[in-house]
Specification:
Length: 241
């Protein structure tokens, strides 16, 4: 009887130990609402997520401030410094993104939202999109501007400084140009590390005359690329099409 009773005690103890071990190694399950996702339909919510992850102190410079639409009724503050090629407000500096009025390694974080359209060959813009947004005549002009601006932004950012680069791929002359891949490739050559990529989705888009006969899918997304300034150039691993 004693032997049988001892066996029961041992088995009971083993069961309790197993339960304790399982409880200790059960990871907490985060709620879906608490997860920062790589996609969003809300631009300001996406920027807030980026800042929460990579720049809690906010944006120090917006060098393409325009009307300041990123900051109206936003859950984050206006940047300390604001600049634009053609300022619309008195508190915005006039400056080209390829020639910024700051010392080397001066800034902690920069927002950059440059033009993305190409194919404007007339003095006055034609088409709905080109009347709303500025653009370049040829894709090589657009990409040359991206490269020059990236080089200048790298200069004024401090080591480990953050660049948030909004961009969109574009179609011109029946050719699809993956600008985001080109930007990543050039940024890494300059010494940026591609920290993250966010995709901003749209539920609707303007439809122009050139969308009646489609050769490519109408783009219902744009990107927020997050770069970190490093001391040495990275090895490019993304090849633009």
């Amino acid at each position: 009887m004693k032997k049988h009773k001892t066996t029961e005690i041992i088995n009971s103890s083993e069961l309790q130990t197993d339960n304790i071990v399982k409880a200790d190694f059960t990871p907490p399950q985060p709620k879906q609402a608490d997860i920062i996702k790589s996609i969003n339909y809300d631009q300001k919510a996406m920027i807030a997520d980026i800042l929460k992850l990579y720049s809690p102190s906010g944006i120090e410079l917006d060098c393409t401030y325009s009307k300041g639409s990123f900051y109206k009724n936003a859950p984050y503050s206006e940047p300390e410094y604001k600049s634009d090629l053609a300022p619309l407000f008195d508190d915005v500096m006039e400056a080209d993104a390829e020639n910024l009025p700051f010392y080397d390694d001066f800034l902690k974080s920069i927002m950059f939202d440059p033009p993305f359209l190409v194919g404007q060959n007339k003095a006055e813009p034609t088409g709905i999109m080109r009347k709303r947004f500025s653009g370049f005549r040829y894709i090589k002009d657009l990409w040359e501007f991206y490269r020059g601006a990236l080089k200048e932004i790298h200069r004024v950012l401090e080591p480990n400084g953050i660049l948030i680069f909004k961009c969109q791929d574009t179609v011109n002359g029946s050719t699809n140009y993956l600008s985001h891949a080109y930007i990543i490739n050039e940024a890494e050559k300059l010494g940026f590390y591609t920290k993250d990529l966010f995709v901003l989705l749209a539920k609707s888009r303007l439809i122009g005359h050139n969308h009646k006969i489609q050769k490519h899918a109408r783009k219902f997304h744009s990107y927020f690329l997050v770069f970190v300034k490093k001391d040495k150039p990275c090895t490019p691993i993304h090849t633009p099409v």
